[in-house]
Input
Amino acid sequence: MKIDRLLSIVMLLLESDRVSTSKLAKMFEVSTRTIFRDIEVINKAGIPIVSYPGNHGGIGIMENYKIKKKLFTSSDINTLLIGLNSIQSSMSSDEIHQTITKIKGMLSEEDVRDFDNQVIVDNSPWYGLKYPKPNFDEMNSAIKERRLLSFKYADQNGMRTERVIEPYRLIMKDTNWYLQGFCTTKEAFRTFRLTRISFLRVLDKHFIPREFKSALEAKSERETITIKLLVNESLLDIMTEYCGKDCIKAYDSKHWMVDFPFIEDDHGYGFLLRFGEKCICVEPEHVRIEVIRRIKYLQAAYQIE
Output
């Protein structure tokens, strides 16, 4: 008998006047006999369950019971659904789908229709192909069971390396999922973007957890530096989104000086070049030189004899 099913039944009964046993059985994918056993256990736990006969009958919690029946408001439930849908749109999980179904059971049919029509969460890009969804089940299993993970990892330049790590945490940041763990190859904590992981395997070897206080300890293998950009006023909103207002200062009537967090890779330089003459790197000098080199290389590639 699963404790999560018992708790879910109690939550549903707290939010509904009555629910039919057949509906509960269908929702939790069990038999009605199992639901009756669950109700008996809930009764023995001290929560009085009453039965209502008739076509519109069912079971519910006694009206004068001291637990407040409105444990969650409709606004609370909508907030939960938005959060769960955000996760489900970027990872596939039967458990999340079942949880969403259970929570929707707390709403009226009209509220469910309103939510489905008014709120859509889609983290996929507007253009290009969707990334394949990583195998979260294997990663979660390795994290819970303290087992090593083996995989191939592609860096920004496309170079693949074999990694064996002690997995500790899955993190979603800026619509992307990352795995944090201790890399036995680098002998340090590292953060890996899941879309760059391939040939994932959960190994039979277990590990003893290391001290792992915060996400900041598991650094990315790419170092971030601060560069100064002179940008046109048309880019102010974009730069504010990336850096925040504190990193932007007025330069003249049409330009702004930006302290920009920068990673020296193809993606970083591509970000600067996409804005053309509206975004100029002021310093450091070696970044300016690399931007110029890439511009000349691109110009040479387009020259036709």
